[in-house]
Amino acid sequence: MTTKVLIPKPGMGTTEGTIAKWLKAEGDVVAQGEAIAEIETAKAIEEVHAPTTGVLTKILLREGETAEVFTEIAVIEETPGRSR
Questions:
Q1: Which CATH number fits domain 2-78: 3.20.20.10, 3.30.1370.10, 2.40.50.100, 3.90.550.10?
Q2: Confidence class of residue 13 from pLDDT cuts 50, 70 and 90?
Q3: Is 0.85 surpassed by the pTM of this model?
């Protein structure tokens, strides 16, 4: 099963975010709740956490790119036998 990773909405008034840094690369195993990227908004730098455990199979937005909140930025493929 695949899970979308979205730009979070960290606060009221925030409408977009810029990928400041990817902390994980495509092919890396990630654990639910683990920080996988940093998003820069007008007010702060926020961490993006993995919504599930699995393999980060695709990064859709590169460092320096900006998108609206709730835009899909990556895909995690849940690995069989690993808990959510």
A1: 2.40.50.100
A2: confident
A3: yes
